[in-house]
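idk why but the lab printer keeps eating my pages so im just putting this in chat instead. protein + DGJ:
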Amino acid sequence: MIETADSGRIWLLSGRTSGYALHLTDHGELLHLHWGPRLTLADAEALALLPLAPHRPFESPLDGQEEYVVECGPRFARPALSVRTPEVRGTEGEFAGADVDGDELRLRFADAVHRLGLTLHYRMRDDSDVVERWATVAHEGAPGDPDLELLRADAAVWTLPPREGWRLSQLHGRWAAESRLVRSPLTPGDKVLGSRRGHTGHQHLPWVALDAEGTATEESGEVYGCALGWSGSWRIAVQHLPDGRVQISGGAGYDDSGLLSLAPGHAYTTPVFAGLWSPDGFGGASREWHAWQLARVVPEAGRVRPVLFNSWEATRFDIGEEQQRALAGRAAALGVELFVVDDGWFGERTHDAAGLGDWTPNPERFPGGLKPLADEVHALGMRFGIWVEPEMVNPDSALYRAHPEWVQHQSGRRRTEFRNQLVLNLARPDVQEHLWEQLDGLLSSVPVDYVKWDFNRSFSDAGWPGEEYPQRLWIDHVRALYGLLDRLRAAHPSVDFESCSGGGGRIDLGILSRTDQVWTSDNTDPLDRLAIQHGFSQLHPARVMAAWVTDSPNTLLNGRRSSLRFRFVSAMAGVLGVGGDLTRWSEDELAEARGWVELYKEIRPVVQLGAQYRLRPPEGGLSAVQYVRGDDAVVLAHLQAQHHGLRPPALRLRGLDPAAAYRCLDTGAVHRGAVLLHRGLDTGLVGDLDAAVFRFRRAGAGEG
Ligand code: DGJ
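predcted complex ->
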């Protein structure tokens, strides 16, 4: 709901439990008023009467107060908008009007010097606490006027209320160690997170959370969170200003490498930078993010994801039709629902130095093309998926030989061939059209139900020889990727897409709005995964988090041995997949795995679509995560190591009705809700790397 004060200068957006207010002063400055619990319009009007900080010669009264900081005049905080023409740098906007359109508020400003129009967009829905913000910058001049150079155009600036101090939570990592949570006190100055790699990156998820004075816990206290929806280079800057105020700006691009030039008549729309306030701790904030993504971001999120098999760890590049048929037979017998052939099925792709870009089946490996395998997979009752990496090319490929000019390249410079591959310049319309034809042709000629879309190197030579504004390549690459995905989804509505970038190198709200799930990490070690998944769940729901059970020992990373039980219970916290070499699993292992897959199918609506409670973080001892949906609850518990013969602590459950009784479907025992919530559940886990699943159903529910 959006309310406007009679003055026409105060706007109040109200969501499920929170409110957001802004104020246009008599001097035409747009100030932030409130972000927190719901307020009335009268409260917001009272807030607007509070005096600003007194003027001091070296401080700006506007710093830390403005809704969207522009570069100009008495402002020393980091600007969200920085614009220049050859003559004038900075922008100064006059208020030009407000529109309310359903859930969306638009505030318009005009800069007469630059002939620039700035629109700030806000959207808050009644059933959510997420505020979506973005901005549009338009060159409203006439032909012949100088272009506007956009040095920076962030999506939004979030302002936190004055408090004595703040703690910052972030998700950092690298390849095979993504999305690990770290919390630290926020110190004065700027904390900048981002990626200058052309994709979201393994190093940081574009998300931060802040809690005042470090007082929030998993289930209590106020938490603010911000997350960006952009799959290219990006930057989130958390500023702790000299007077203790905190503002968070974020948008596409890390530095000026991707700066844009706007010609008269052209406009730039930023990605969405979403924010939320939660009174219910980090867990409450996560559940609110999850609910919003399931309702508003992820396509058809109400459909549960199938259990998949992926061939990568089992066969790497050494693949062939017979071997894939053998794996498919075993996968189907386990209860797998989707069989995905990973890298190695096309062109000369027998290793990572050739074939990328040539999207036709390798005739020696698949003599009749992919259709016979796809038909067999379908006959086995599974859906059929393939791996592609459309944005890349190996120099040793037919595509590169035909079009060496299609790759990103800086004239006269040496280029980098990470993983023996180059990045195609997707900003080029001819490259876009070629990829469309290749992918549309592939999906039209083979009965493919699922596409795993990979991206295995960062930009390092982002040049476009002969192009006047080569820097637009950074943004246009992402737009072209989004355009291709959108077009393919529209033309092939029954095909699902997975986003992968060497594991979790491209996970953000932008890609999630056009893919069905993401590959969380190339690290499939079930113990390491607990930490990666714990971080991932701070922002994203289990419904999109792919997790595979692979072989033991883990030969890729650490040689760790773990039981099938531990591997399955770890992977069941997301979208379960199997990625081991099933032809080497014993009959006993296959039989056990069949049981786990069956159990997962039973609990998956609760895991994938339920409310998630992180009961205990994975810090060495007992950790657990719980999911609640209607009358059902599921607990996945893991014990890393038992010490000194001590029994692990009881697990205090969450989200149950204290007045109800719950039957544990695994033990048959009936527990009082109040007891599970307060005294807790004994897991019985012992030793090292033990794990268990507990299913609870409200007694009486579904029993007749
Ligand atoms: C990186 C992905 O993360 C893996 O799962 C696999 O698809 C390989 N690429 C294939 O090259």
